């Protein structure tokens, strides 16, 4: 059975799929608000499951640590190794899902987007955080270190502080890339 | 960055993809052990994220309550409404992923499988549990009530009671359907 929030905020914030980032100040403000709302939703959830499609069409997921906020362009960044299997998968099929689950808070977020590999050194340095040393001992000089850039297209979320009901809120519908 | 278990049990239990359910007692026993292992992994995680592929190729996930064990054939069952969007999605594209996250226990499970809709009344009654009344007020007589049958093909899991390392254990490689 699917979890669904009962006492929901029925306000729906759906932006036009044709919205460009600078189409108007209002749209830009809306987008900023939506990104801020999404950031708030995933606050305190420090890992996510990234789902990709494999060569044979099967769907795989794996836990990913969250080390940075969603940036102002609605992009989620993960550090990775460029030769990992998930990178092969996204090179063949760009669509991914990033899901966040907080059982304690009964909050669930599904982010749909496209992923691409970024190896730009400036970007690696910009996104680097000391905690990452656990996996990348040589920091940004680690062989095969790379970033997985997830361009967020849509986010759905479910919150149920007290109960459930058959409603879903769509949070973002961006086409900023 | 991807979570990876450091102090892992390095035992790998991979069954032949050609294994049929009754090919031998040994294989059957292995399969039972693997299913039992998978059951143990998801014990105490009472919700999962189900990821499906939409018509436009994008990946969506949504939280699902777990009300029954994985059965002896390696099948995971969810109650659903036959007219829900995810059912439309699996009718077009059967491959799904079911992910379990336990942040407290630092345990993550990814189940890859194929999904199909089951409306058989006997099966509905067999799998029915009183807790489901919250969503299906009329029980198995609820209009559009159905089961989502997920045939598990593979499960990966990550456990890190103390730390992480670059290893993954594959749990199941079944081809019993």
Brief description of this entry?
The structure is a homodimer of 177-residue chains. Chain A has 177 residues and is of the alpha+beta class.
Could you characterize the architecture of this molecule?
2 copies of one chain form a homodimer. Chain A is of the alpha+beta class. Chain A has one domain (25-173): Pnp Oxidase, Chain A (Roll), CATH 2.30.110. In chain A, 19% of the residues lie in helices and 34% in strands. Chain A has 3 helices and 7 strands; from the N terminus they run H-E-E-E-H-E-E-H-E-E. In chain A, strands 1, 2, 3, 4, 5, 6 and 7 form a 7-stranded antiparallel β-sheet that branches. Chain A is globular, with a radius of gyration of 17 Å. Chain A starts with 24 loop residues before the first helix and ends with a strand. Mean pLDDT of chain A is 78; it is low at 4-23 and 161-177. Chains A and B meet through strand 1, strand 2, strand 3, strand 4 and strand 5 of A and strand 1, strand 2, strand 3, strand 4 and strand 5 of B.
Major sheet characteristics of chain A: 7 strands, antiparallel
Poorly predicted parts of chain A: 4-23, 161-177
- Quickly count the helices of chain A: 3
Number of domains of chain A: 1
Oligomeric form: homodimer
Characterize the overall form of chain A. Answer: globular
